[in-house]
Every structure is written in structure tokens, then in C-alpha cells.
Amino acid sequence: MSGQSSNDDIYLFIMRHGEAEAPRLDDKSRQLTPLGREQAKTAALWLKDQYCQKGVVDLALVSPYRRAKQTHDMVSLDIIANKVENNEDIVPEGSPRLVSDYIDGLLHAAVNSKKPIKKLLVVSHMPLVSYLVDELCQSYTTSLFSTASIAVIKYSLKEHKGTLVTHYQGL
Q1: What distances in angstroms separate CA 167 from CA 34, 43, 80, 164, 170, one per listed residue?
Q2: For 117, which DSSP code?
Q3: Among 2, 97, 124, 147, which is most buried by a count of CB atoms within 10 Å?
Q4: Burial code of 16-41, b = ≥16 C-beta within 10 A, e = fewer?
Q5: What CATH number was assigned to the domain covering residues 2-19+27-168?
């Protein structure tokens, strides 16, 4: 029982990238605007102040798209990830069910390891971030994410689902 209570302190931070330049032929290479960089920096400071006082998350799953990587780079100025994984499944058209199942599997696999995951950051895109929150929480509200906003989910390994704690909307 005592092990279970410590497993209840898992937080997932689902973040949309900062403001990006206008669409172009290659969506993957769109970069952050100066405002997008500022949004990501401000969001990181909020996250550090509210949930990551030590300035660390255990794992960051980052979309391979340039604007998501740049957002993570800005966040990393204040919050370091012990491990970073570029994940091809967390792109705009990604499957929320697949990503939710992957996250659940990662969390469960880490329980008995020497490095349990207590804080996990996902940096991705609309509409995936919205649908992913719904999938993780099993509540279908389809929240809209402004750029560089962060949904904070407290995740229960026992129930295989999370509860939305707050949604930081940013600048």
C-alpha cells in the first residue's frame, strides 16, 4: 500500500508549442516567432514556480517538428528533462489513444525501476494536445489550447487515467 500512494504523485504537463511563423509548404519546418519564444519562456517560468520548483522533469516527449523542438529548447532554459525523447507519434495528426497508451506504458514500466517517472512533459501541437488531454482524463471536453499553454494532469497508475488539475493559458 505504501508504494501505491507514492505512485499517485505523477504529473503530466501537456504543452502546445509557442506561436509559430505563418504556414508554409513544409509544416514541419515552421519556426517560433519572437513572441512564441517569449510565450514558451513565460510558460516554463510558470511551470517551474507551480510544479517543478527543482527545475527538473523526469522525461520530455517532444514532437519532431521544429517549432515544438524550439519550444522545448526555451523551456529547457528553466526546466531540465532527465531524458528527452523525440516522438514521431506526437505530431498534429497523431493518435491520442496511441499516445495515451504509450504514456501509460512508460509510467507503469518505470514504477519498479530505479528511475520512476513522477513528472512528464509533452510538447506537441493542436489538435493532438486537446484530444490527448481528453484521452488521458477520459473526459471529452476538447479544450482549446492557446500557443504555449499547458494542461496539468495528475495521473493515477491504478486507474490508468488522469484528472485535469489546471490549464495555464499563457500570454
Answers
A1: 23, 11, 21, 8, 9
A2: -
A3: 124
A4: bbbbbeeeeeeeeebebbeebbbbbb
A5: 3.40.50.1240
Contact 35, 18 (CB under 8 A): yes
Helices assigned H by DSSP within the chain:
2-7, 34-50, 66-75, 96-111, 128-137
Per-residue model confidence as pLDDT tens for the chain (171 residues):
333 334 568 999 999 999 999 987 889 999 999 999 999 999 999 999 999 999 999 999 999 999 999 999 999 999 999 999 999 999 999 999 999 999 999 999 998 888 899 999 999 999 999 999 999 999 988 788 999 999 999 999 999 999 999 999 987
Return the residue matching grid coordinates 514532437: 63
pTM: 0.94
